[in-house]
Protein backbone atom coordinates (compact mmCIF):
# COMPACT_ATOMS: atom_id res chain seq x y z
CA UNK A 1 0.00 0.00 0.00
CA UNK A 2 2.42 2.70 1.09
CA UNK A 3 5.54 2.08 -0.97
CA UNK A 4 5.50 5.38 -2.79
CA UNK A 5 5.20 7.22 0.45
CA UNK A 6 8.06 5.28 1.89
CA UNK A 7 10.31 6.41 -0.90
CA UNK A 8 9.22 10.02 -0.57
CA UNK A 9 9.71 10.26 3.11
CA UNK A 10 13.11 8.66 2.99
CA UNK A 11 14.06 10.99 0.21
CA UNK A 12 12.96 14.07 2.11
CA UNK A 13 14.51 13.24 5.38
CA UNK A 14 17.70 11.59 4.33
CA UNK A 15 18.44 13.54 1.19
CA UNK A 16 21.75 14.73 2.44
CA UNK A 17 22.78 11.29 3.58
CA UNK A 18 21.69 9.41 0.49
CA UNK A 19 24.77 7.85 -0.92
CA UNK A 20 25.42 5.71 -3.91
CA UNK A 21 25.94 2.79 -1.58
CA UNK A 22 22.65 3.43 0.08
CA UNK A 23 20.98 3.64 -3.27
CA UNK A 24 22.49 0.34 -4.38
CA UNK A 25 21.54 -1.30 -1.12
CA UNK A 26 18.06 0.00 -1.40
CA UNK A 27 17.87 -1.19 -4.97
CA UNK A 28 18.76 -4.67 -3.80
CA UNK A 29 15.93 -4.52 -1.32
CA UNK A 30 13.63 -3.34 -4.06
CA UNK A 31 14.70 -6.27 -6.20
CA UNK A 32 13.91 -8.63 -3.39
CA UNK A 33 10.48 -7.15 -3.02
CA UNK A 34 10.09 -7.23 -6.74
CA UNK A 35 10.40 -10.95 -6.80
CA UNK A 36 8.24 -11.44 -3.75
CA UNK A 37 5.37 -9.07 -4.24
CA UNK A 38 3.24 -8.79 -7.29
CA UNK A 39 1.34 -5.84 -5.92
CA UNK A 40 4.54 -3.97 -5.41
CA UNK A 41 5.63 -4.68 -8.93
CA UNK A 42 2.73 -2.67 -10.22
CA UNK A 43 3.59 0.39 -8.22
CA UNK A 44 7.32 0.25 -8.25
CA UNK A 45 7.92 2.20 -11.49
CA UNK A 46 6.23 5.28 -10.00
CA UNK A 47 8.30 5.13 -6.93
CA UNK A 48 11.50 4.72 -8.81
CA UNK A 49 10.87 7.49 -11.28
CA UNK A 50 9.91 9.90 -8.58
CA UNK A 51 12.80 9.48 -6.29
CA UNK A 52 15.80 8.12 -8.11
CA UNK A 53 16.91 11.10 -10.19
CA UNK A 54 17.14 13.34 -7.14
CA UNK A 55 18.80 10.68 -5.13
CA UNK A 56 21.45 10.23 -7.78
CA UNK A 57 21.98 13.94 -8.28
CA UNK A 58 22.48 14.54 -4.60
CA UNK A 59 24.49 11.44 -4.02
CA UNK A 60 27.31 11.95 -1.56
CA UNK A 61 30.03 9.52 -0.48
CA UNK A 62 28.71 6.57 1.39
CA UNK A 63 28.49 7.43 5.05
CA UNK A 64 27.83 5.46 8.19
CA UNK A 65 24.47 7.07 8.78
CA UNK A 66 23.12 5.85 5.46
CA UNK A 67 24.50 2.41 6.10
CA UNK A 68 22.93 2.28 9.48
CA UNK A 69 19.58 3.29 8.08
CA UNK A 70 19.88 0.53 5.56
CA UNK A 71 19.99 -1.97 8.33
CA UNK A 72 17.46 -0.43 10.61
CA UNK A 73 14.13 -1.71 9.27
CA UNK A 74 14.48 -5.12 10.95
CA UNK A 75 15.17 -3.36 14.26
CA UNK A 76 12.07 -1.33 13.75
CA UNK A 77 10.02 -4.45 13.38
CA UNK A 78 11.37 -5.76 16.67
CA UNK A 79 10.70 -2.52 18.37
CA UNK A 80 7.17 -2.18 17.13
CA UNK A 81 6.27 -5.57 18.48
CA UNK A 82 7.19 -4.57 22.00
CA UNK A 83 6.22 -0.97 21.68
CA UNK A 84 3.04 -0.12 23.45
CA UNK A 85 4.00 2.41 26.10
CA UNK A 86 6.35 4.29 23.82
CA UNK A 87 3.62 4.74 21.30
CA UNK A 88 1.72 6.95 23.69
CA UNK A 89 4.76 9.13 23.98
CA UNK A 90 5.23 9.65 20.29
CA UNK A 91 4.34 13.27 19.56
CA UNK A 92 4.45 12.55 15.85
CA UNK A 93 1.84 9.84 16.06
CA UNK A 94 -1.21 12.01 15.56
CA UNK A 95 -0.16 13.48 12.28
CA UNK A 96 1.73 10.48 11.00
CA UNK A 97 0.77 8.51 7.96
CA UNK A 98 0.22 4.76 8.16
CA UNK A 99 3.66 4.15 6.68
CA UNK A 100 5.79 2.18 9.08
CA UNK A 101 9.07 3.31 7.68
CA UNK A 102 8.15 6.91 7.94
CA UNK A 103 7.22 6.42 11.51
CA UNK A 104 10.49 4.82 12.21
CA UNK A 105 12.38 7.66 10.66
CA UNK A 106 10.52 10.19 12.72
CA UNK A 107 10.73 8.07 15.80
CA UNK A 108 14.46 8.59 15.70
CA UNK A 109 13.92 12.32 15.88
CA UNK A 110 11.90 12.43 19.00
CA UNK A 111 13.44 12.73 22.46
CA UNK A 112 14.38 9.16 23.21
CA UNK A 113 13.03 7.14 26.04
CA UNK A 114 15.94 5.10 27.24
CA UNK A 115 15.47 1.38 27.72
CA UNK A 116 16.83 1.62 31.23
CA UNK A 117 14.24 4.14 32.32
CA UNK A 118 10.60 3.29 31.89
CA UNK A 119 8.81 6.31 30.55
CA UNK A 120 6.55 8.29 32.80
CA UNK A 121 6.29 11.16 30.37
CA UNK A 122 2.75 11.65 29.21
CA UNK A 123 1.73 12.87 25.82
CA UNK A 124 0.37 16.16 27.23
CA UNK A 125 3.75 16.79 28.78
CA UNK A 126 5.42 16.39 25.48
CA UNK A 127 3.05 18.85 23.91
CA UNK A 128 3.76 21.39 26.63
CA UNK A 129 7.43 20.82 26.08
CA UNK A 130 7.07 21.19 22.35
CA UNK A 131 5.43 24.55 22.67
CA UNK A 132 8.32 25.71 24.83
CA UNK A 133 10.96 24.13 22.66
CA UNK A 134 10.07 23.43 19.09
CA UNK A 135 13.57 22.04 18.59
CA UNK A 136 13.85 18.77 20.40
CA UNK A 137 16.18 16.58 18.48
CA UNK A 138 19.40 15.86 20.31
CA UNK A 139 21.86 18.68 19.79
CA UNK A 140 24.01 21.26 21.48
CA UNK A 141 24.41 24.87 20.58
CA UNK A 142 27.51 26.09 22.34
CA UNK A 143 28.89 29.59 22.17
CA UNK A 144 32.41 29.94 23.45
CA UNK A 145 33.30 32.87 21.16
CA UNK A 146 31.45 35.70 22.88
CA UNK A 147 33.82 38.01 24.73
CA UNK A 148 32.12 37.79 28.12
CA UNK A 149 30.27 34.55 28.64
CA UNK A 150 30.33 30.94 27.49
CA UNK A 151 26.99 29.16 27.11
CA UNK A 152 25.66 25.84 25.86
CA UNK A 153 22.10 24.83 25.07
CA UNK A 154 21.70 21.07 25.11
CA UNK A 155 18.54 19.51 23.72
CA UNK A 156 17.37 15.91 23.76
CA UNK A 157 17.75 13.39 26.56
CA UNK A 158 19.88 15.48 28.90
CA UNK A 159 20.89 14.22 32.36
CA UNK A 160 22.49 16.28 35.08
CA UNK A 161 24.63 15.08 37.94
CA UNK A 162 25.61 17.97 40.17
CA UNK A 163 28.25 16.46 42.44
CA UNK A 164 30.32 15.52 39.40
CA UNK A 165 29.48 18.81 37.62
CA UNK A 166 28.23 16.77 34.69
CA UNK A 167 25.68 17.43 32.02
CA UNK A 168 25.30 14.39 29.80
CA UNK A 169 23.61 14.15 26.44
CA UNK A 170 22.36 10.64 25.74
CA UNK A 171 22.29 9.63 22.07
CA UNK A 172 18.91 8.68 20.78
CA UNK A 173 18.35 4.98 21.04
CA UNK A 174 19.55 3.01 19.10
CA UNK A 175 22.00 5.59 17.76
CA UNK A 176 25.68 5.50 18.59
CA UNK A 177 27.94 8.50 18.71
CA UNK A 178 31.38 7.30 17.64
CA UNK A 179 33.07 10.64 18.40
CA UNK A 180 31.45 12.09 21.48
CA UNK A 181 32.31 15.73 22.13
CA UNK A 182 32.91 17.45 25.40
CA UNK A 183 32.79 21.05 26.53
CA UNK A 184 33.86 22.72 29.73
CA UNK A 185 31.91 25.85 30.54
CA UNK A 186 32.29 28.22 33.46
CA UNK A 187 28.64 29.07 34.06
CA UNK A 188 29.31 32.60 35.35
CA UNK A 189 28.61 35.56 33.11
CA UNK A 190 32.32 36.49 33.12
CA UNK A 191 34.02 33.46 31.70
CA UNK A 192 37.43 34.24 33.14
CA UNK A 193 36.15 34.58 36.70
CA UNK A 194 38.46 32.73 39.02
CA UNK A 195 37.09 30.49 41.73
CA UNK A 196 34.10 29.36 39.69
CA UNK A 197 34.12 25.67 38.91
CA UNK A 198 33.57 24.58 35.33
CA UNK A 199 30.69 22.34 34.29
CA UNK A 200 31.44 19.38 32.01
CA UNK A 201 29.08 18.87 29.13
CA UNK A 202 29.54 15.48 27.53
CA UNK A 203 27.96 13.57 24.72
CA UNK A 204 27.70 9.91 25.59
CA UNK A 205 28.82 7.33 23.04
CA UNK A 206 25.78 5.13 23.48
CA UNK A 207 22.51 5.05 25.43
CA UNK A 208 23.81 2.24 27.64
CA UNK A 209 26.37 4.58 29.19
CA UNK A 210 23.66 6.75 30.73
CA UNK A 211 22.73 6.40 34.39
CA UNK A 212 19.01 6.00 34.86
CA UNK A 213 17.08 9.15 35.67
CA UNK A 214 16.22 9.48 39.34
CA UNK A 215 14.04 12.51 38.61
CA UNK A 216 12.33 13.14 35.29
CA UNK A 217 11.34 16.63 34.32
CA UNK A 218 9.46 18.14 31.43
CA UNK A 219 10.65 21.69 31.98
CA UNK A 220 14.09 22.88 30.93
CA UNK A 221 16.89 23.59 33.40
CA UNK A 222 19.32 26.46 33.64
CA UNK A 223 22.75 25.94 35.20
CA UNK A 224 24.56 29.03 36.48
CA UNK A 225 26.99 30.12 39.16
CA UNK A 226 26.55 32.66 41.94
CA UNK A 227 29.36 34.27 43.90
CA UNK A 228 32.08 35.69 41.71
CA UNK A 229 32.17 39.43 42.31
CA UNK A 230 28.62 39.72 43.57
CA UNK A 231 28.17 41.39 46.92
CA UNK A 232 28.64 44.70 45.17
CA UNK A 233 25.12 45.89 44.32
CA UNK A 234 26.07 46.84 40.76
CA UNK A 235 27.73 43.46 40.12
CA UNK A 236 24.69 41.72 41.63
CA UNK A 237 22.75 43.13 38.69
CA UNK A 238 25.37 43.22 35.97
CA UNK A 239 26.79 39.76 36.55
CA UNK A 240 23.67 37.83 37.58
CA UNK A 241 20.27 39.50 37.50
CA UNK A 242 20.37 40.91 33.98
CA UNK A 243 21.97 37.79 32.41
CA UNK A 244 19.60 35.55 34.39
CA UNK A 245 16.62 37.54 33.19
CA UNK A 246 17.85 37.21 29.60
CA UNK A 247 18.29 33.44 29.94
CA UNK A 248 15.12 32.56 31.78
CA UNK A 249 12.33 35.11 31.46
CA UNK A 250 11.05 33.54 28.25
CA UNK A 251 10.11 30.36 30.15
CA UNK A 252 7.63 32.30 32.27
CA UNK A 253 8.62 30.36 35.39
CA UNK A 254 8.72 26.95 33.70
CA UNK A 255 12.43 26.38 34.22
CA UNK A 256 14.46 24.90 37.04
CA UNK A 257 17.59 26.60 38.33
CA UNK A 258 20.60 24.41 39.08
CA UNK A 259 22.95 26.73 40.94
CA UNK A 260 26.61 26.09 41.43
CA UNK A 261 28.59 28.03 44.06
CA UNK A 262 25.22 28.79 45.64
CA UNK A 263 24.99 31.83 47.95
CA UNK A 264 22.10 31.84 50.37
CA UNK A 265 22.35 35.57 51.06
CA UNK A 266 22.05 36.34 47.37
CA UNK A 267 18.98 34.20 46.84
CA UNK A 268 17.47 35.72 49.98
CA UNK A 269 18.20 39.27 48.90
CA UNK A 270 16.70 38.79 45.44
CA UNK A 271 14.10 36.17 46.29
CA UNK A 272 11.36 38.06 44.46
CA UNK A 273 13.34 37.85 41.25
CA UNK A 274 14.05 34.13 41.69
CA UNK A 275 10.43 33.38 42.50
CA UNK A 276 9.21 35.15 39.41
CA UNK A 277 11.75 33.60 37.07
CA UNK A 278 11.29 30.00 38.27
CA UNK A 279 8.41 28.18 39.91
CA UNK A 280 10.61 25.25 40.91
CA UNK A 281 12.94 24.53 43.79
CA UNK A 282 16.39 25.98 43.35
CA UNK A 283 18.88 23.12 43.37
CA UNK A 284 22.24 23.39 45.15
CA UNK A 285 24.02 21.80 42.22
CA UNK A 286 27.38 21.17 43.89
CA UNK A 287 25.67 18.88 46.41
CA UNK A 288 23.15 17.32 44.05
CA UNK A 289 23.70 13.60 43.49
CA UNK A 290 20.41 13.00 41.72
CA UNK A 291 20.37 12.14 38.05
CA UNK A 292 17.92 14.74 36.80
CA UNK A 293 16.60 14.37 33.30
CA UNK A 294 15.46 17.29 31.19
CA UNK A 295 14.53 17.85 27.56
CA UNK A 296 16.72 20.98 27.47
CA UNK A 297 19.49 22.24 29.67
CA UNK A 298 21.09 25.65 29.28
CA UNK A 299 24.50 26.02 30.86
CA UNK A 300 25.68 29.55 31.52
CA UNK A 301 24.12 32.98 31.44
CA UNK A 302 25.15 35.64 28.97
CA UNK A 303 26.28 39.17 29.64
CA UNK A 304 25.87 41.34 26.55
CA UNK A 305 27.59 44.37 28.00
CA UNK A 306 28.11 45.93 31.41
CA UNK A 307 24.80 46.39 33.25
CA UNK A 308 22.78 46.31 30.07
CA UNK A 309 21.24 44.38 27.22
CA UNK A 310 21.86 44.49 23.49
CA UNK A 311 18.37 43.70 22.14
CA UNK A 312 19.72 42.33 18.85
CA UNK A 313 21.60 39.66 20.80
CA UNK A 314 18.44 38.55 22.58
CA UNK A 315 16.36 36.12 20.53
CA UNK A 316 13.28 37.43 22.34
CA UNK A 317 14.29 41.03 21.64
CA UNK A 318 14.50 41.93 25.32
CA UNK A 319 15.84 45.36 26.13
CA UNK A 320 16.89 47.15 29.29
CA UNK A 321 13.48 48.82 29.24
CA UNK A 322 11.90 45.35 29.51
CA UNK A 323 14.25 44.48 32.35
CA UNK A 324 13.56 47.60 34.41
CA UNK A 325 9.84 47.18 33.86
CA UNK A 326 10.13 43.61 35.09
CA UNK A 327 12.08 44.70 38.17
CA UNK A 328 9.50 47.38 38.96
CA UNK A 329 6.61 45.00 38.50
CA UNK A 330 7.94 42.29 40.81
CA UNK A 331 8.45 44.94 43.47
CA UNK A 332 4.94 46.27 42.90
CA UNK A 333 6.19 49.73 41.93
CA UNK A 334 3.42 51.82 40.43
CA UNK A 335 5.23 54.52 38.46
CA UNK A 336 6.17 53.86 34.84
CA UNK A 337 6.59 57.53 33.93
CA UNK A 338 7.90 60.61 35.77
CA UNK A 339 5.74 63.59 36.50
CA UNK A 340 4.88 65.66 33.47
CA UNK A 341 5.32 69.37 34.12
CA UNK A 342 3.37 70.04 30.98
CA UNK A 343 0.30 68.43 32.52
CA UNK A 344 1.08 69.66 36.07
CA UNK A 345 2.68 73.09 35.59
CA UNK A 346 2.86 74.06 39.28
CA UNK A 347 4.13 70.73 40.62
CA UNK A 348 7.43 70.20 42.42
CA UNK A 349 9.18 67.19 40.89
CA UNK A 350 11.02 64.97 43.31
CA UNK A 351 14.83 64.98 43.23
CA UNK A 352 16.46 62.11 45.06
CA UNK A 353 20.12 62.48 45.98
CA UNK A 354 21.84 59.17 46.65
CA UNK A 355 24.23 60.02 49.40
CA UNK A 356 27.40 58.18 50.21
CA UNK A 357 29.72 58.43 53.14
CA UNK A 358 33.46 58.81 52.47
CA UNK A 359 34.76 58.10 49.86
CA UNK A 360 32.83 59.91 47.15
CA UNK A 361 30.71 61.78 49.64
CA UNK A 362 29.12 65.09 48.66
CA UNK A 363 30.67 67.20 51.41
CA UNK A 364 28.43 70.19 50.75
CA UNK A 365 25.22 68.20 50.49
CA UNK A 366 23.27 71.02 52.18
CA UNK A 367 24.24 73.45 49.38
CA UNK A 368 23.00 71.01 46.76
CA UNK A 369 19.74 70.46 48.64
CA UNK A 370 19.19 74.22 48.82
CA UNK A 371 19.96 74.61 45.15
CA UNK A 372 17.49 71.89 44.27
CA UNK A 373 14.77 73.47 46.38
CA UNK A 374 15.48 76.92 44.97
CA UNK A 375 15.07 75.53 41.46
CA UNK A 376 11.66 74.04 42.31
CA UNK A 377 12.39 70.46 43.38
CA UNK A 378 11.23 68.56 46.39
CA UNK A 379 14.55 67.10 47.53
CA UNK A 380 14.88 63.75 49.31
CA UNK A 381 18.02 61.97 50.42
CA UNK A 382 18.44 58.28 49.67
CA UNK A 383 20.98 56.53 51.84
CA UNK A 384 20.83 52.83 51.20
CA UNK A 385 23.01 50.76 53.50
CA UNK A 386 24.01 47.32 52.21
CA UNK A 387 21.40 45.42 54.16
CA UNK A 388 18.43 47.59 53.42
CA UNK A 389 15.49 45.62 52.08
CA UNK A 390 15.77 46.01 48.32
CA UNK A 391 12.03 46.39 47.88
CA UNK A 392 11.72 49.17 50.48
CA UNK A 393 14.41 51.31 48.93
CA UNK A 394 13.14 50.55 45.44
CA UNK A 395 9.78 52.04 46.45
CA UNK A 396 11.43 55.30 47.44
CA UNK A 397 13.44 55.49 44.24
CA UNK A 398 10.34 54.88 42.19
CA UNK A 399 8.74 58.02 43.63
CA UNK A 400 11.59 60.16 42.24
CA UNK A 401 11.52 62.05 38.96
CA UNK A 402 15.23 62.86 39.08
CA UNK A 403 17.93 60.72 40.66
CA UNK A 404 21.45 61.99 41.23
CA UNK A 405 24.55 60.67 42.91
CA UNK A 406 28.30 60.27 42.72
CA UNK A 407 29.53 57.26 40.73
CA UNK A 408 29.07 54.11 42.82
CA UNK A 409 27.03 50.98 43.24
CA UNK A 410 24.13 52.87 44.86
CA UNK A 411 23.31 54.32 41.45
CA UNK A 412 22.25 50.83 40.39
CA UNK A 413 18.92 51.80 41.94
CA UNK A 414 18.23 53.76 38.76
CA UNK A 415 16.55 50.56 37.52
CA UNK A 416 13.61 51.43 39.78
CA UNK A 417 13.11 54.89 38.30
CA UNK A 418 10.15 55.34 36.01
CA UNK A 419 11.10 55.11 32.33
CA UNK A 420 11.98 58.64 31.02
CA UNK A 421 12.96 59.92 34.47
CA UNK A 422 16.19 61.93 34.73
CA UNK A 423 19.39 60.36 36.00
CA UNK A 424 22.45 62.45 36.87
CA UNK A 425 25.80 60.79 37.45
CA UNK A 426 28.43 62.85 39.24
CA UNK A 427 31.73 61.71 37.74
CA UNK A 428 34.62 62.08 40.20
CA UNK A 429 37.86 63.77 39.16
CA UNK A 430 40.51 61.56 37.56
CA UNK A 431 40.13 60.61 33.92
CA UNK A 432 37.49 57.99 34.69
CA UNK A 433 34.77 59.36 32.43
CA UNK A 434 34.89 56.38 30.15
CA UNK A 435 34.45 53.87 32.95
CA UNK A 436 31.56 55.87 34.38
CA UNK A 437 29.89 56.00 31.01
CA UNK A 438 30.21 52.24 30.52
CA UNK A 439 29.01 51.40 34.03
CA UNK A 440 26.02 53.76 34.21
CA UNK A 441 25.81 56.23 31.32
CA UNK A 442 25.21 53.78 28.50
CA UNK A 443 23.01 51.51 30.62
CA UNK A 444 20.88 54.51 31.68
CA UNK A 445 20.36 55.43 28.04
CA UNK A 446 19.45 51.82 27.28
CA UNK A 447 16.87 52.04 30.11
CA UNK A 448 15.45 55.13 28.36
CA UNK A 449 16.33 57.42 31.20
CA UNK A 450 17.34 61.01 30.46
CA UNK A 451 20.99 60.76 31.32
CA UNK A 452 23.14 63.73 32.35
CA UNK A 453 26.78 63.54 33.38
CA UNK A 454 28.40 66.09 35.67
CA UNK A 455 32.20 65.95 35.73
CA UNK A 456 33.95 67.03 38.90
CA UNK A 457 36.77 69.49 38.24
CA UNK A 458 40.01 69.33 40.20
CA UNK A 459 38.83 72.35 42.25
CA UNK A 460 35.73 70.43 43.32
CA UNK A 461 37.74 67.40 44.39
CA UNK A 462 39.00 66.95 47.94
CA UNK A 463 42.06 65.22 46.44
CA UNK A 464 43.45 68.69 45.61
CA UNK A 465 43.76 69.79 49.23
CA UNK A 466 44.81 66.29 50.29
CA UNK A 467 47.66 65.82 47.77
CA UNK A 468 48.55 69.35 46.59
CA UNK A 469 48.48 70.63 43.05
CA UNK A 470 51.86 69.13 42.09
CA UNK A 471 51.02 65.51 42.85
CA UNK A 472 50.76 63.40 39.62
CA UNK A 473 47.31 62.20 40.71
CA UNK A 474 46.20 65.83 40.50
CA UNK A 475 48.46 67.19 37.77
CA UNK A 476 48.32 64.30 35.34
CA UNK A 477 45.51 61.78 35.85
CA UNK A 478 46.32 60.23 32.45
CA UNK A 479 49.63 59.05 33.94
CA UNK A 480 47.84 57.11 36.66
CA UNK A 481 47.39 53.71 35.11
CA UNK A 482 45.92 50.46 36.30
CA UNK A 483 42.71 49.72 38.08
CA UNK A 484 44.38 49.52 41.48
CA UNK A 485 45.76 53.06 41.40
CA UNK A 486 42.51 54.42 40.03
CA UNK A 487 40.58 52.62 42.73
CA UNK A 488 43.00 53.73 45.43
CA UNK A 489 42.89 57.45 44.62
CA UNK A 490 40.02 58.54 42.48
CA UNK A 491 37.47 56.10 43.87
CA UNK A 492 38.99 55.34 47.25
CA UNK A 493 40.18 58.71 48.64
CA UNK A 494 38.09 61.33 46.92
CA UNK A 495 35.09 63.31 48.15
CA UNK A 496 33.45 66.05 46.13
CA UNK A 497 32.43 69.63 46.88
CA UNK A 498 29.96 70.47 44.13
CA UNK A 499 30.23 74.02 42.77
CA UNK A 500 26.56 74.95 42.91
CA UNK A 501 26.91 77.68 40.29
CA UNK A 502 28.40 75.24 37.89
CA UNK A 503 25.89 72.55 38.82
CA UNK A 504 22.74 74.72 38.60
CA UNK A 505 22.37 74.37 34.81
CA UNK A 506 22.39 70.57 35.22
CA UNK A 507 19.36 70.69 37.51
CA UNK A 508 17.70 73.21 35.21
CA UNK A 509 18.25 70.81 32.33
CA UNK A 510 16.63 68.06 34.40
CA UNK A 511 13.63 70.30 34.97
CA UNK A 512 13.49 70.98 31.25
CA UNK A 513 13.36 67.24 30.51
CA UNK A 514 10.32 66.92 32.75
CA UNK A 515 8.62 69.67 30.79
CA UNK A 516 8.97 67.81 27.48
C1 LIG B 1 9.75 44.83 25.60
O1 LIG B 1 9.45 46.19 25.51
C2 LIG B 1 8.89 46.57 24.28
C3 LIG B 1 8.73 48.08 24.24
O2 LIG B 1 8.99 48.70 25.43
C4 LIG B 1 7.55 45.89 24.11
O3 LIG B 1 6.99 46.24 22.88
C5 LIG B 1 7.76 44.40 24.17
O4 LIG B 1 6.52 43.74 24.12
C6 LIG B 1 8.49 44.02 25.44
N1 LIG B 1 8.78 42.62 25.37
C7 LIG B 1 8.46 41.80 26.32
C8 LIG B 1 8.75 40.38 26.05
O5 LIG B 1 7.96 42.16 27.36
TrEMBL record:
<keyword id="KW-0808">Transferase</keyword>
<comment type="pathway">
    <text>Glycan metabolism.</text>
</comment>
<dbReference type="InterPro" id="IPR007657">
    <property type="entry name" value="Glycosyltransferase_61"/>
</dbReference>
<feature type="domain" description="Glycosyltransferase 61 catalytic">
    <location>
        <begin position="311"/>
        <end position="424"/>
    </location>
</feature>
<dbReference type="Pfam" id="PF04577">
    <property type="entry name" value="Glyco_transf_61"/>
</dbReference>
<protein>
    <recommendedName>
        <fullName>Glycosyltransferase 61 catalytic domain-containing protein</fullName>
    </recommendedName>
</protein>
<keyword id="KW-1133">Transmembrane helix</keyword>
<dbReference type="GO" id="GO:0016763">
    <property type="term" value="F:pentosyltransferase activity"/>
</dbReference>
<keyword id="KW-0812">Transmembrane</keyword>
<feature type="region of interest" description="Disordered">
    <location>
        <begin position="63"/>
        <end position="123"/>
    </location>
</feature>
<feature type="transmembrane region" description="Helical">
    <location>
        <begin position="17"/>
        <end position="36"/>
    </location>
</feature>
<keyword id="KW-0325">Glycoprotein</keyword>
<dbReference type="InterPro" id="IPR049625">
    <property type="entry name" value="Glyco_transf_61_cat"/>
</dbReference>
<dbReference type="GO" id="GO:0000139">
    <property type="term" value="C:Golgi membrane"/>
</dbReference>
<feature type="compositionally biased region" description="Basic and acidic residues">
    <location>
        <begin position="67"/>
        <end position="96"/>
    </location>
</feature>
<keyword id="KW-0472">Membrane</keyword>
<keyword id="KW-0328">Glycosyltransferase</keyword>
